[in-house]
Specification:
28% of the residues lie in helices and 24% in strands. It is built from 4 helices and 5 strands. The chain has a 5-stranded antiparallel sheet. The longest helix has 18 residues. The termini are far apart.
C-alpha cells in the first residue's frame, strides 16, 4: 500500500538513469555514485542505447570523477590491462555504434596513440601522470566529455 504510483514519464526517466553502487575503504573517498549524472545521459533511456553509447557515457562519469581528485600538476591517463602496451594520456574519446569505444591521446613519449576496443573487451585502468611541462594548465578531458553530453 505504501508504494507510490509513478507516471509513465517518471518510469521512463528512472529507466534512463544509470544505477551505480560503490564502497571505498575511506568513507570520505569521492565516488561516481554520489555525483550528479550529466543531463545528456538522462536524455535517452538505457534500453534505447547501444552497448557502445552506454559504455561511453558510463566511462565519462568515471573519468570526470577521477579528474576531480587530481591536482594541477597531473592529468589523467589510461593504462592498458592484459598486455604490455603501456599508457595512453587521454585526450579524446568516442564510440561507434553498436559496439566500439575508442580513446585518442598520446603515449609518455608524446607519440600519437589511439585505442579502438570492442565493448565486450573493455578494461580501463585510470592513472594520474604528471602534466606536460610546456603547458600551463592540465588538460581535463573528463569535464569536456561530460559537458559534451549535456550539450548534445
Amino acid at each position: 500500500m505504501g508504494e507510490q504510483v509513478k507516471t509513465a514519464a517518471e518510469a521512463e526517466e528512472a529507466d534512463a538513469l544509470p544505477k551505480v553502487h560503490e564502497v571505498h575503504a575511506d568513507p570520505k573517498a569521492k565516488n561516481a555514485a554520489q555525483k550528479p549524472v550529466p543531463d545528456g545521459v538522462k536524455k535517452t533511456p538505457v534500453g534505447k542505447k547501444s552497448p557502445a553509447q552506454w559504455a561511453y557515457e558510463r566511462l565519462i562519469i568515471y573519468l570526470k570523477n577521477f579528474e576531480e581528485d587530481l591536482d594541477n600538476e597531473h592529468e589523467m591517463a589510461m593504462g592498458f590491462t592484459g598486455g604490455d602496451a603501456g599508457v595512453l594520456r587521454i585526450e579524446g574519446m568516442g564510440y561507434y555504434d553498436p559496439d566500439i569505444v575508442t580513446f585518442y591521446g598520446s603515449d609518455p613519449s608524446g607519440s600519437k596513440t589511439q585505442l579502438v576496443q570492442h565493448v565486450s573487451q573493455l578494461n580501463v585502468m585510470l592513472r594520474a601522470l604528471p602534466k606536460a611541462v610546456e603547458q600551463a594548465e592540465p588538460k581535463r578531458i573528463g569535464f569536456r566529455l561530460a559537458q559534451d553530453l549535456d550539450d548534445a
